[in-house]
Amino acid sequence: MSSKFAVIGGTGLYAMMSEFEMTRQEIVNTPYGEPSGPLVHGRLLGHDVVFIARHGFTHRLPPHSINYRANIWMLKNAGVDSIIAVNAVGSMNQDCPPETLVIPDQIIDYSWGRQHTFYAEDLTRVVHVDFTQPYSESLRKTLIQTGEKAGLSMLNKGVYGCTQGPRLETAAEIQRMIRDGCDIVGMTGMPEAALARELSLEYASIAVVANWAAGLSDDPLSMDAISNCLQQGMTQVKTLILQVFQ
Ligand code: HPA
Fold first, then answer.
1. Least buried of 76, 116, 185, 186, by fewest C-beta within 10 Å?
2. What is the mean pLDDT of residues 58-64?
3. Mean of all residue pLDDT scores within the chain
4. Does CATH place domain 5-117+127-244 in 3.40.50.1580?
5. What are the φ and ψ backbone dihedral angles of 146, each rounded to 5 degrees?
6. If you measure from the C-alpha of residue 166 to the centroid of ligand 1, how many angstroms do you get, rounded to a whole number?
7. Ligand 1 within 6 A of 186 CB?
């Protein structure tokens, strides 16, 4: 594998697996301000891989306060060309119950007010990137084929609806998202994916289902229940990432 990979850890993934040999941590200043935390450099099964915890190592940043531009710029600047993003989600699709994984192929963006483009200032021309397919098809294929080989419980496509958070959705909002065609709902998929595209980085997501979306289950949505499912899901995420580098 000749690409240099980054893993962006989401809720429940604040460090890489034990097989990751950290070589150094780097504090990076970017033209867009402070990233979520230091860039963690290391080796995974003989490959150069960098890691960043999207919410910070102590989960101090809510989804709308994450400096997505600084994070993506930092990865590009480090010579990364492929990003595996890990995102916690709620599910609206019976085929992906809690604790399973989804490799989404589409996005609907309901977030607002985030710094969502590198092409905002000092422009000599207006830039519109093609985002018809928001994720890298080749990286998605790698994740799907690897997951299938490893026998993981995984859905190979799905529409990711990105909400603003940090509150969870209302039952009516989830019903609207179902009508829109969403399969999963999270708060961090955008603008990250679009920013990666603007800098020509390969980008795919491993979405980890933490709960049924609001109003779809009789059980109340609690942070405890979400974290429990996420922990189970993260074991699978780590297996999948390890197998990618095998
Ligand atoms: N909604 C939005 N984001 C989430 C959810 C959810 O139900 N679960 C985990 N992240």
1. 116
2. 90
3. 94
4. yes
5. -65, -45
6. 9
7. yes
